[in-house]
Amino acid sequence: MIHEKLDEHGVAELVVDNPPVNAFDLASIDALISALRGYGSPDSGVRAVVLRGEGRGFCGGGDVKEVQRLPGYEGILGQIHGSQNLTLAIAECPVPVIGAIHGYCIGLGVLVAGVCDILLASPGTPFVLAEADNGATSGIIQAIGLMPEKRLRAALFTCEPVPAEELAAFGSVLRLVDPEELPSAALALAHTVAGKRTAVIRGLKSAMAGSIGRDIRTAYRQELSYTLELNMSGEARDARSDFTEHRRPGYLHGESGN
């Protein structure tokens, strides 16, 4: 479930509340995309967006159980297209999106964090690119917004957590904030952004996108070709089965119900 609130300062707050671990199922992904795309018009009154999670952590990844449950390739194709469209909706949202990350950030959560404009995180939060353990090869173009290339390679090949403190040292996380203070800190930051001239902020975000030149749409499509091959061969389904049957790595420590 996604809770959406808009305050009198023009700050939209999107809160992921999908117990037990905030796995992003297809309905949650669609709801986030719809909300973010709705902020495109200046008539929406939105000047900045805060994206955060309720409960134990920000995001336990895509809902792998849903992927396995749906017939044929319906689940994996839904997650593939949903992941691409959600990250594009954040990257292309004309106003800044501030991610507030706590507890844990896994898989699709890391991709989402990688395309947010600004990140705050609680100390000790692990960022885990779990693609290798789920038979996936995508998300590189989004995650490169968080860490240098060689560090990203290590994170992808090992699935070992990258702590929020390390991302803060890179400058990818603006500030470490205690979990209980994180929502209010993110809103305060969003209010600072919302206090600027809207047309200027929108222009700056568009200018940044052009200067950085991160073509998510094209690069993600190329990455997905390998994921689709792994699904057609059965390798990816076997990997997801291991994951959902609790033969999974220690980084989850029982947290993820994906």
UniProtKB/TrEMBL annotation:
Residues 237-248 have a biased composition (Basic and acidic residues). Residues 237-258 are annotated as: Disordered. It comes from the Bacteria. PANTHER family: EG:BACN32G11.4 PROTEIN (PTHR43459:SF1), ENOYL-COA HYDRATASE (PTHR43459). This is Enoyl-CoA hydratase family protein. Pfam families: ECH_1.
